[in-house]
Write a structure and sequence with these properties.
Elements (H helix, E strand, L loop, with lengths): L20 H27 L5 H14 L1 H29 L6 H28 L1
Helix pairs in contact: 1-3, 3-4
Length: 131
């Protein structure tokens, strides 16, 4: 006898909550930040293949001249993801230490965490558009 039902609850069944959504975005922001660090390290090593500083500076200068807005956008999005990841990590450390575990404080700490992450991101955006 075959029962026609899903194996596990799907995202369409559950409403997004302030307790589960930051956890999901914490993982996404951590993966994005790690990927961007890896890409930046690998792109800096491409210039070192010639083993001369003149060719490396020529490579870096042409990259920053041609893709100025793309590079600044990636840096800004990486900084925003890092700010979010760090502020949510501090929130998780509070939970590990046993603070703010009742439900009302969990929601308050979630909202405060979002404001703590948004402040440096917006400050960087203002600096980004002033250039």
């Amino acid at each position: 006898m075959k029962i026609n039902r899903p194996l596990s609850p799907h995202l369409t069944i559950h409403k997004p909550q302030l307790t589960s959504t930051p956890s999901i975005f914490h993982r996404i922001s951590g993966a994005f930040s790690a990927t961007m660090v890896l890409v930046s390290l690998l792109s800096s090593k491409v210039g070192h293949l010639s083993l001369t500083s003149e060719n490396y500076y020529r490579y870096a200068f042409s990259l920053t001249n041609d893709l100025h807005w793309l590079i600044l956008s990636l840096v800004n999005s990486t900084l925003s993801a890092l700010c979010y990841h760090m502020s949510n990590g501090v929130r998780h450390l509070w939970w590990d230490l046993g603070f703010v575990l009742d439900l009302s404080r969990v929601y308050t700490s979630g909202i405060l965490m979002l404001f703590r992450a948004a402040r440096p991101a917006f400050m960087n955006l203002f600096r980004f558009f002033r250039l």
